[in-house]
Specification:
The protein has 411 residues and is an all-alpha fold. The chain is built from 22 helices and four strands. The protein folds into two domains: 219 residues, no CATH class; 163 residues, no CATH class.
Amino acid sequence: MPVIALGSGTSKEAVCVVFEKVNTGGKALDAFELVTAMYAADGYELRRDWYGKDGALGRQHRFKETLRPAGQDSGIIAAVSNTDFLHAVSLFHTRERRREAEAVGKQGKELPAVSGNRNALLNLPLEAYKKYQALVEEGFVRAAKFLHMLHIYRVFDLPYQTQIIPLAAILDDIGAAWEHEANRAKLAQWYWNGVFGELYGSAVESRTAKDFLEVPAWLKGGPLPSTIRESTFRAERLKTMRMRISAAYKGVNALLMKTGAEDIRSGQKFDHIVFFGENVDIHHIFPRKWCEDRNIGPAVYDSIINKTPLAYRTNRIIGGAAPSIYLSKLEQGDKETPPISVQNLDGYLRSHLIDSNLLRADQFEGFMVDRQERLLTLIEKATGQSAYRGETEEEAETDLEAAEAELTITA
């Protein structure tokens, strides 16, 4: 039997690498598994906390049930992983160590980093975990409530899973202050800058730590967090946002619902009851068939500019007809649907940032230009800063945009 001998001075991170490389059981050995083994040496069952045991429900189950709507399998924080949870705990522990170092006069590079990376998790003391676990869990529950306030109800529609970690840590750190309207507005501004700046798709560990330190300080009058300072949104990006692999695509959908979009058939706003009860999703405004019949390609008609949240039954009425036809159908009604007045229907369309005159005239090109500008204004209001409207012809297409384009063409 082969044996790997490790010296007593081998770091925990190095042990993790060795275990991952020699593991042949088909199950990944992540930091959670190794921290579990470390805590077991002290007689503590970490897996019991997460998965539950002997009839006791674990944290994973509680997260799945948090704000779970009736008839749905899970709630908005169901995809939070055990390592995500440890990451948030580590943020508090490493910040505590940093503050202790500051208290004794250390500065600059002498200060320990605030971190939730794998090395930090493997050096997370059991006592620190015990100290912060309940507080961090409450932070994730607050994050779920906050996301519902932004009209983000499903994991499927969550712009970034990774941004939940700093969100939960921040909400726990500021305590009851998160209930104040002014703080919520600032938190929403920070959140949308992360989404529309598309900043939580890579290099998330360093950004998470920065936001954990900077956002609470900003709420108390400090400088803008780097996520807001570094966030930019290009006007032309709206044209290339075509599917849910884009965080900003999902962000536009949530913002439309948050700012009062009403279903164009029922006139209902999309709170969580209507959202699930009416099977609301993102649908085309100018239908796919109508566009394809006029040689308009998916690279154009699949843009978020030509999409909006609609109920399932409403989308069925729209079908593949021209907007002028399906709007007339809604106005006339039928034996199952009462007629809708032109005034009310125009109001519903305005709530989706749609110019009713352009839509009734089937003016696709004019509609796309007009709605792009309206959506940009919506994003600017949410982020608190102007979108970049400069020339973009010479700018390289991002990896994300290229992936969206390829998936759109091959779909």
